[in-house]
């Protein structure tokens, strides 16, 4: 029996549906055969109105399934972009987010009409049709952002696969693809943890010569911070890569706390590291500092020239820092040849309580039972979910 509360909610929902019934439904989150397998946020107004960004999540460690929906909401609500967020899923359980399932990200066809892609995947091996949409995007020369593990976005073990060269460890006959997608397109593949993983954080320092770069707009040293450690890269980065942010490796002042989502690290930790005790060599991780964000032109064989922005900071907990969020918003404007705001509005949209990065067990994900629909904004929730 429907309660008065349910009746009121039903009436409101019907009214809202009626108001929207004439709008373009091309951004629908529902599939023809089941629950939502991606989420879309439609920008109502702002400089980005009419431009479509596709955010592709799919990693087992750094909570891209939390980071990208929040980033998509910020870009949509604060700046007017239409944003579609994709998730890793087991085809046997459509609509359930499965970061450890490496072989399926529904909705890759959304890239066909995207103006920009934001990629945050790790060691994926996707089916032919999904990879074809990905390659078509790259061949078009459209701009993209690679976050953290995007440097090792793919790991294709089958040497007979037509996508084998996209893998992080590729060293085959196609020499331009050595190091896979990460090295050719983004400028680097997976190399190392330069800082001590879960013990040393990353403090962003604007790179020399990048002080006036549009992506640095509204940023000062220390605004960008995250509990993820600095990744190692080979210097100098290839091609026309330009470092924008350097990663200063910081020691934590407090004790290591596995139950704390920041592992005991804090943005106001002030001790600059001179050692990474996790490494056998007695190296100073700040001599030199590694770039953690850079720009680069890219061009894959038979494709047009495009431009990329890459940042190896960007786990969901890294987005707690306003400066980290601002860096990514600035990069979107810059890549789309739009005027970058002096100080972009990057306020959190809705509730955002990111969890600590880590590799989680199958049991953890079964208990989490995260649904794609969990990332819909309240105004976009289907009636059947509102009436639960």
Description:
- The protein has 388 residues and is an alpha/beta fold.
- Helix content is 20%, strand content 16%.
- The protein has a domain at 33-193 and 234-243 and 290-386: Rossmann fold.
- Helix 2 links the parallel strand 2 (52-58) and strand 3.
- The chain starts with a helix and ends with a helix.
Summarize the structure.
Helix content is 20%, strand content 16%. The protein has a ten-stranded mixed β-sheet. It has a two-stranded antiparallel ribbon with strand order 6-9. It is globular, with a radius of gyration of 21 Å.
- What distance separates the N and C termini? 13 Å
Can you tell me the CATH topology of the domain at 33-193 and 234-243 and 290-386? Rossmann fold
Helix content: 10-25%
What overall form do the CA principal axes indicate? globular
What is the top-level CATH class of the domain at 33-193 and 234-243 and 290-386?
Alpha Beta
Strand content: 15-25%
Named at the architecture level, the CATH assignment of the domain at 33-193 and 234-243 and 290-386 is 3-Layer(aba) Sandwich
* Mean of pLDDT: 91
Number of beta strands: 12
Number of helices: 7
- Strand order across the biggest sheet? 1-3-2-4-5-12-11-10-7-8
Secondary-structure element order, as H and E? HEEHEEHEHEEEEEEEHHH
The gyration radius over C-alpha positions equals: 21 Å
Q: What are the segments in which pLDDT stays under 50 over at least 5 consecutive residues?
A: 1-28, 381-388
Class by helix and strand content?
alpha/beta
Largest sheet, in brief, is: 10 strands, mixed
